[in-house]
Amino acid sequence: TPLANGWAYIPATAASIVVSEAGKTRTYPAAPWYATLTRVIGDAQGRRVIYTGWNRTTGDSAAASTLLLDNGSHEHIMTAFGEGVGLSRLSDGVLIKSYPTQESVALIKVPSGGAIQKLGTIPRPISAITASGDMKRATIDERDYRADAWMSKVIVP
After folding, report:
1. Residue 102 — left, alpha, or beta (φ > 0 → left; ψ -120 to 50 → alpha)?
2. SS3 of 13, please?
3. How many CB atoms lie within 10 A of CB 30?
4. Rounded distance, CA 45 to CA 90, Å?
5. Residue pair 87/43 in contact by the 8 Å Cβ criterion
6. Cβ atoms within 10 Å, residue 79
7. pTM as predicted
8. Which residue from 20, 87, 53 is spatially nearest to 28, judged by alpha carbons?
9. How far out from the chain centre does Cα 102 lie?
């Protein structure tokens, strides 16, 4: 993920976050809860990253946490038993997409300087959701499984 002066990424071990800024490289181990990291994204300010991964004990729960780049501290945001967690950058923070079941997606906004906002749950089989930076527009891919027939439909307001 791009940062203000560099990049942050998850190396092949999937156990840490590597940050390369202004010619310096630092490695931050994941919080102890995590067995494997899956995604990392920088927020709009560029001084923290949000990351996701699977838990160490059972592997059946996904979570999201914040890594503050100025001091290396971690803050747990959310944990969900389920199918996974996705991330999207917003103009003023990050959108977390948690998949508690194969038939639903819960949306959580993590603003750059405020309290976490639970936006709600979409009770539909959503395979992907992408929101614009200001959250005024979104593209949603709904899975419409009918055993042997697939259909796509584009809706333009």
Report:
1. alpha
2. coil
3. 21
4. 11
5. no
6. 15
7. 0.80
8. 20
9. 17
How far apart (Å, rounded) are the C-alpha atoms in residues 63 and 51? 8
Cα–Cα distance for residue pair 125/144, rounded to 1 Å = 7
Residue pair 143/127 in contact (Cβ under 8 Å)? The answer is yes
Q: How far apart are CA 57 and CA 61, in angstroms?
A: 9
Spatial distance between the Cα atoms of 34 and 24, rounded to a whole number of angstroms = 25
Q: Which sign, positive or negative, has the C-alpha torsion 1, 100, 95, 133?
A: positive
For residue 36, what are its two tokens? 């494997």
* Closest by CA position to 108, among listed 95, 93, 89, 121: 95
For the four alpha carbons of 36, 142, 97 and 94, in that order, the dihedral sign comes to: positive
Please write the tens of the pLDDT for every residue from 83-110.
778 888 888 888 888 888 778 888 999 8
Task: Give the Cα-Cα-Cα angle 139, 141, 144 (nearest 5 degrees).
Answer: 150
By 3-state DSSP, what share of the chain in percent is helix, strand and coil, each rounded to 5? Answer: 0, 60, 40
Residues 109-138: pLDDT tens digits?
988 777 889 999 999 888 888 889 999 998
